[in-house]
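Re-run requested by the PI after the first attempt was lost when the workstation crashed. Everything re-entered from the original request form. Ligand of interest: iron/sulfur cluster.
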Amino acid sequence: MADAADKLNGVFIEVAVDDAAANDPAVVAKLEEVCPVDIFKDAGGRLEIVAAHLDECVLCKLCIEAAPASTVHVRKLYDGTELS
Ligand code: SF4
């Protein structure tokens, strides 16, 4: 059952963070703080994406504004565009 549930995560939204930002403790802490649906987890200064929360993304852009330019990518898989 867990496998089936996992496959349903990230159906509508994909989030990717460039390595430099994902390994910057200050950026990671900020991402964890700003996302209203807890998609970003601070794992001791390294970023983890919480797959189970991906499709709860409300497209608020707070993560994009909190990180250095063009390092956070929020892709809307249902229409092929990326939030900017
Ligand atoms: S756009 Fe908003 S809800 Fe979506 S991942 Fe970024 S901070 Fe979280």
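Saved to the shared folder this time. Strands lie at 13-17, 40-43, 46-49, 72-76, 81-83.
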